[in-house]
Amino acid sequence: MRNLSFLKLPRAGIDTIITFILILAILILTLILLGLLREYLKTKKLKNYFFKEARDRGLTEQEAQVLWNYSLKLGRDPFLTLEFKAPFEKVVDLYLKLDPNADEKIIQNMRIKLGFDYVPYFVPLVSTKDIELFQPAKLYTESKESFEVALFDKDEKYMYWAVIDKKGIPAVKGKKVTISFVRKGDGIYKFEGIVEDIYTENGKTILKIPHTFELTRYQRREYTRVEVEIPVKVGISTENKTEWLKGEIVDISAGGAKVCIPLSEYQQEIQPMTKLNLKFSLAGKEFNLKATVINVYPRRHTTCYGVKYEDIKPEDQKFIHDFVKKEQQKLAQILVKNKG
């Protein structure tokens, strides 16, 4: 047989193996460091861009730093805090909870600069911080008692509800209560909280309750609506004849409208469930709709009626829906410009 010893591979010495392992470790470590460096540079670039964007919106270096730091702690995109109210409120809430030296004035200034201090009626509330002062509400105790209250004051951590019910003061300190209120043009809201303190200020009994994001919302109407000023002819049928009255549509939706008729035009009050005819022009289109009175809102010089359309054609309903949507978009743009 031939001698095949020349085909044997040379054995690597211990020094060669150690050298190879060191080179491999250095290569892996270099790749890791390059990855970390790339991520650092990417983060630094994003941070620089974020701070520039924040400065353009009027925020100070300190304010931008708060949003940047606590967005990262929360795992949120910091840029969203500059654009949208919900992530902004979540981030500043974390700042209040984690920073023992948190400055509420900084939050209030940022909210104003970013245009988050006002919530349009067609935008749902994010937290109890968005409830307007003097908002009336019902407070329910665990024993099912109810009391009339109104939002007297608020800061970044607490809301202060004044008891306006004449029947007494609820014994609810340290206990859970439920508060429910109606937000005009939006819906019914409900939330729960623990009453941390009860005190008297200027003769008013005040309940101190922490803010919460846990708001339950019930939309009162199937369709959103916008405020308008549209002349309308209102037809009331009596004894085989129709009496036409001059009025004004003050808000409208794809499902109904609020129609106001001056007392000088018609002194009687139209009863609920009365059938009406409505003739009006909307965005260049003429409408002749049947409607039913659902609600009555008496005023000093006029009476307004919430009416629901009956047997409205799909194309007419879509036209009104599109009109409402466009008007809301216009209003939102105006609000953004005013805040800018």
Q: What can you see in these coordinates?
A:
The chain is 33% helix and 34% strand. The protein is an alpha+beta fold. It has three domains: 18-118, no CATH class; 128-219, Beta Barrel (Thrombin, subunit H); 225-335, predicted glycosyltransferase like domains (Thrombin, subunit H), CATH 2.40.10.220. The strands form two sheets. The chain has an eight-stranded antiparallel beta sheet, with no helix packed on it. A six-stranded antiparallel β-barrel has the order 9-10-11-14-13-12. Strand 2 and strand 3 form a beta hairpin. Helix 1 (14-56) packs across helix 2 and helix 2 packs across helix 4 (85-98). The radius of gyration is 32 Å and the shape is extended.
Quick take:
The relative contact order is 0.07. It is built from six helices and 14 strands. The mean pLDDT is about 85.
Topology:
Elements: H1 14-56, H2 61-74, H3 78-83, H4 85-98, H5 104-113, E1 136-140, E2 146-154, E3 158-163, E4 176-183, E5 187-194, E6 197-201, E7 204-210, E8 216-219, E9 225-238, E10 241-253, E11 256-262, E12 275-282, E13 285-298, E14 302-310, H6 314-339
Antiparallel strand pairs: 1-2, 1-4, 2-3, 3-7, 4-5, 5-8, 6-7, 9-10, 9-12, 10-11, 11-14, 12-13, 13-14
